[in-house]
## 1
Amino acid sequence: MKFYNKMAVVVLATSGLVLSSSPAFAGQINGSGATFAQPLIDVCKVEFTKDTGHTINYTAGGSGKGRTDFTNNLVDFAASDAVYTSGFPANLEYAPVYAAPIAIFYNLPTVKEPINLTAATVAQIFGGQITKWNDPQIISDNQKRTIKTPVYKTKQEVVTVGGKKVTKTVPVLDKNGKPTVLRTTSKTVDIALPSTPITVYYRTDSSGTSEQFGKYLQGTNAGANADLWPKTASGTFANSTPINLATVFNFQGASGSALVAQGVKDKIGGVGYGELSWATDNKLAVANIVNQAGEAVAPSSAGTSAFLGGGTIQANGSLVADYKKVITGAYSIGTASYGLVYPEAAKKNAETQKIVAAWHTYLLEQCPKKFPEKGYVALTGPLYDKAKEQIAKIK
């Protein structure tokens, strides 16, 4: 491979074809992991190849599969929305490269405006206690209730996508990565809800999205509502629910976010969870989630930035969220997502590691900016600084 690349350079030079933007070598790296990351990786790896000549092969089998493949040295990198809880590899660094909201998406054709859900209501839907869309708890969240909604400051940015300059609308973030909330609006809602049975679609594979969703359900309901979601979060959704899913009729399992979203799309009354892009691509409605400040917030990059800004960055690069903190403008089901990479001590191939480092830098600095419509957050502030520090360890 090295010999072929050297020969290619000689041929180009002697023929007078000088490609100044081409890399000294063009290689490929292999990764696996989160379906949460797939919508962004799928579009951005094409841009990365155009800009660098390198190829990214990525198999989205879930965060658990990515961690397993990384542990077994089967891939050059992995993507995960959750950190290891056991089986920690000897050589591993977490590189936070972007964040995104976990959306609650649903299929209710007769409901023409987004529904609003409190943390307690979400827990009872996904815990099997609420089984119809006109349940008194959902009605309480959506009828004759004054809803406060944050409005964020945005700006226009010009980015290059597909070789063309395009203008994208992005939130304005301060030096700490927090969005500017211009104002909070209020209105009284009175949403008519059907008696349609609820069908819950959940992930059956080992999933960082499921684990982060479980952390939200447990963390926001801690205290007076602890019995609504008492179990510790798990990458396997069935292991963290307060009920035995085998005993209920209205839960449907699916492997990966794509099939969860497809299941909801095909079933009137269906509801599921996943990265916002899966809802957008399937034209599914998404719920506004009531945060600790009492605001009903739609899943967005700005709301996720506000929420994660209240978390604590760990020495290993991971982020611990604070689900009880009152943060204006926060979308409370947001999560950082990580690249799992090998540090210098792993003694990996130097050229491969250069591509891994370049790819994660691209994910951090370019991908969310090029495709803000996918719903991912471009990291800024202290978390961005930590990401750069972690990526620098890839040698």
## 2
Amino acid sequence: MSDWEALSDKLKALGVELGKEKRFGDAPAVQHPIEKVVDGQFWDSIYGPAFFYQEVYPPDYCHGATPLWPASTLATICQWASAHRLSRDDIGDIIFLDTETSGLAGGTGTYAFEVGLGRFSDQGFCLAQFFMRHPGEEPALLAALSEFMTDMKAVVTYNGKSFDIPLLNTRYTLMGMTSPFDAVDHFDLLPLARRLWCLRLESRTLGNVENQILGVTRGDEEVPGYMIPDLYFDYLKTGDARPLAGIFYHNAIDILSLAGLFSHMTAILQDPFTEKTPHNQDIVALARLFESMEDHQQAANLYRKALNTHLPDELYWDTIKRFSFLLKRNQDWQGAIDLWRKAADHQDLYAFVELAKYYEHQTKDLVEAQQWTLKGIKALKAHHTPVYQYNLWKEDLDHRLKRLNRRIAGLASG
């Protein structure tokens, strides 16, 4: 029995569905093997050779307009990721990872036939792409990955927490191997990209972010991601690896973009007032991010900066509201009052309620609180508010007014 027949039987016993169109027997006669299409070499793992392509980019290499090598400290991005504190001396132990897979569903029937890895070294940025010439080479590929990632302290992906790492963990488990990702810090840049550019970019796919943020434009070699599984299955049936050159290109750009984004993100998180944040919407997004990280001072500084720029009208008033509540939590009452008065002039209902609360509970000025409540009721009547929201506001304001009237009458009678 061949190695692949034994592996195939093992996979079937574990419930892996290969399917009629994706059943692999003996390797087809090959006239264009991957070795002739990609100038690669073989990694001698304990499970046999694993094909891989390697390229080293010099330390000053820029991906688009962004240097790959991080120039900033990693303290803030580690804080964001709840990771162990890493210094710039640890940069060589951070692995950048992206997979190309047989499908997007995940589970035991999906495997990674190509895994791109990148890490910094004294020579520059080393990119290695490991490729599975047929499924029987999966143990060798996984072993080679583990060996390449020796001393790894953290892994950087784009949506890897939901897809790449769980998939690889599953493959390691199915092959009876120990995953190298256990207890390793993970920087998944997709959630961070969504936070940083949610107000400016409609799409935060890696392709759009690398284009809009890093200034990267992919070449004609690019293969759309949705085509990749079918191209690989065609290769397994025909042995013609020529169409796979585009997959290697696609994966390489993904890895370089990961490194470039990591460099860019560390810079703007470490110094959010840098010229790398030229867009006003991004300043607001950064303020929200720092607020969520409980760095209230940095968030306040960014909110102030954003409000001194030209923001779209809706975003401006939303930022006034967010900033006012941050000031309230920090008991900066004068700053909050100034913003609430401005919002009340704009007829924002929450501002009337907050001013009424302040005068009732902080200064005990019941008459002033009553006046702001009456102004809020008047503003509500002029608002074009959905019925359910109108009823909620009315109930709150009416209840507040009745309580204040009662308290004021009680003081007068006493």
## 3
Amino acid sequence: MAKLDEYRHLVKEILTEYSSHKPAYGEVEVELIFDTERDRYQLVHTGWNKHRRIYGSTIHIDLKNDKIWIQNDGTEIGIANVLVERGVSPQDIVLAYHAPYLRKYTDFALC
């Protein structure tokens, strides 16, 4: 349970840091969505750039089975790399955006 609490704190901290990076274009809000009851965490961009609607989850992370499941990662550096830099074992990170049969070719957990 302590490990899961640590992961919750770490994920919230990282997403909060990323939320301070406002897009240089348009009128776009950066929203943090923390569902601590279900352990789902997202960073969402929403707004307008001229006449074009902007909406999408830039980062989506779930915590399940004592692992960090990265459902979506729209960052340049990669959230998994940030997590590893901050002490999370690669075996506790699942790149859920990769098909299960491809995960064995990464340095991260299969599931």
